[in-house]
Amino acid sequence: MKSQYVGELKSGQTVKEKFVLSKKIIKDKKDGGYYAILEFSDRTGSIDGISWSGENLNNISVGDFVFITGNVSEYSGRLQVVVNSISLGDDEDIDPEDFLPQYQGDIDEVLTAIHGFRAKIRNPHLRSLLDAFFDDNTFVELFRLAPAAKRVHHVYLGGLAVHTLSVLRLLQNVRSVYDFLDSDLLITAGILHDVGKIHEYTYKKSIDISDQGRLLGHIVIGSEMVAQRIAQISGFPDDLRLRLVHMILSHHGEVKWGSPKAPLFPEALILHYVDNLDSKMEMMRQVFEQHRGKNRQWSDYHPFLEREIYLGEES
Ligand SMILES: [Fe+2]
Ligand SMILES: [Fe+2]
To answer: For residue 77, is it within any domain?
Structure first.
């Protein structure tokens, strides 16, 4: 945990803390030499910075984790840190929760609820598969931390788990209407449908797409993760493996949304609709949140929802 956060800095304060360098512009001084216009960020926001000795910054780039000392002052009505020293931080010391937005509720409650769904599964093969994932501490830690997206929906630490739980709740409700659906298969696929996201994104200093994410995407990464675990379980039925892998591959519904196959049986179709519903509802919710207090009747055009959203009169 850090002891100083951007959002709490005040004019006159001394700063000795780790931040992510989010801007670096080197400029010439009139009398020779350089200075640097900087910006430092953490999960609470960002603050301008200035260093009068730009030469020291050659080995530091935007996105790096830096340790700075300096003083906070006010310049043109904005706070800025006048930097005395700046050095490259050690990535190993980073606690992502210091730098990235995180779920505002209790993430452990979300995980407990997901385990509650897991406990309902009767099929021994599907139970073994989920045990193989959740007995792996590295997987559990990443699943707990991962965001569900870089932009658009659930863009915060814990977003993947929150989205997964919503998908499971929706699946349960849909299953109560269509009782011929295989509940064990729905729950398993619901839990695993986006597990590829733990490797699709980087989420230490900033939420971004990893090389693996750019080259393969979470659908391919996730289907490989599931197929690999299944291969370790003796006697896992081939038909069940095919169904589960198909559900992961088809959950985006269409080729243009990243799925190589359209959903080809009822459980796969439901997973796609429910996944789509939860991501779109989260986008809608965010639009309302972003406009709260702004007294606007309509949002700007939303590129993913492909429409302007009616906000109406604020009550
Ligand atoms: Fe997905
Ligand atoms: Fe999803």
So the answer is: yes
Q: Which of 33, 65, 92 is the last residue of a domain?
A: 92
Q: The pTM is what?
A: 0.81
**Six-digit token string for 168:** 């499971």
Shared domain for 218 and 196, answered yes or no, is yes
Q: What's the number of domains the chain is made of?
A: 2
Ligand number nearest CA of 190 is 2
Tell me, yes or no, whether 156 and 222 share the same domain: yes
1-15 pLDDT, tens digit each: 788 999 899 999 999
Within-domain flag for 305: no
* Residues within 5 Å of ion ligand 1, judged at the Cβ atom: 194
Count of other CB atoms within 10 angstroms of residue 136: 13
DSSP state letters, 12-73: T-EEEEEEEEEEEEEEE-TTSSEEEEEEEEETTEEEEEEES-GGGGTT--TT-EEEEEEEEE
Ligand nearest to the CA of 153: 2
pLDDT one-digit tens code per residue, 69-90: 999 999 888 899 999 999 988 8
Please say which residue of 37, 60, 92 terminates a domain: 92
| Rounded distance from Cα 305 to ligand 2 centre (Å) | 16
Q: How far is the CA of 77 from the centre of ligand 2 (A)?
A: 43
- Which domain covers residue 84, as residue numbers? 6-92
Question: Nearest bound ligand to CA 219?
Answer: 1
What is the whole-number distance in angstroms between the Cα of residue 217 and the centre of ligand 2? 13
Whole-angstrom Cα distance, residue 64 to residue 173? 45
What spacing in Å lies between the alpha carbon of 258 and ligand 1's midpoint?
9
